[in-house]
Amino acid sequence: MNFEQVTALKKLLSSSKRIAIVPHKNPDGDAIGSTLALSHYLSKKGHETQVLAPNDFPKFLKWMPGATEILNFERHNTEVKKYIENADLIFTLDFNDFGRVGQMAECLENASAQFIMVDHHQQPSDYADITYSDVTMSSTCEMVYTLIDAMGDRDLIDSDIANCLYTGIMTDTGSFKFKATTSKTHRIVAELMDKGADNTAIHEKVYDTNSPSRLHLLGCALKNMVILEEFNTAYITLTQEELDRYDYEKGDTEGFVNYGLTLNNIRFAVIFIENKDEGIFKISFRSVGDFSVNEFARNHFEGGGHTNAAGGKSEKSLQETIDYFISLLPNYKKELTA
Asked: Whole-angstrom Cα distance, residue 79 to residue 336?
């Protein structure tokens, strides 16, 4: 954070406030970790806080300190709307456009509160009074740590905050292997461990609590994988029928797209997952090197994200979506095979 942002935030927080903290729809480890950590921190500073999620989040994150207090817009619609309406401040974390919160967007657009954005995705919208955006950061959790540090409050980081922040950094860096992981990231993680983050327990709770049905679903996904050697690309498909067959629960497909990148010479991996209720195929894009899946998703699939990790959607049928996707690849052959 720069000096002006820190000064402005300190002024906003100089007296007790009613604060809503909002992650994106289908929140992941970084979204839940950052919102809960910020909530714990601001509560220690004397503010009234409430995390308001657009919808539910995966079971493997529900052990996190404060997770049971999160209000879900789909389940607690009236309470969420009332809290937003009466909030003094609204922090939006791990997203930078109201299009990422689904049906909550209208509530946020009509809110009278001042907004503070904390996010590391590219091309932020201009809705916040304070926009803390840094695409070089590994995660929003790393940004929340940096915010706390900039406010001069590292001494307020306790084991609850440390466990939340560690979880988000770990998940958004692919257990510290992605390109955005820096030496600073590791120094922050080391301090979080000193503050009480239980790295072994966190890893086990996030990655080692699979159900048999999830592993069977992974087997189905891998069986469906198609490799396009000419473009150093691999893609996976999962239909609603396949999700239902293996008793899909929210979060079960987390990380599936990354399996494509474990193949030799593959530089671009994609997964297409049907959501029949919404009438779309949700798409996740991953890449290695300089190929920007953020630009690919923005240009062709109404999405965006980071250079090496992005999301999008298609309202076409599966076959139409796949055909369209494959038709685009010749335009990127040089980037994918250089």
From this structure: 48
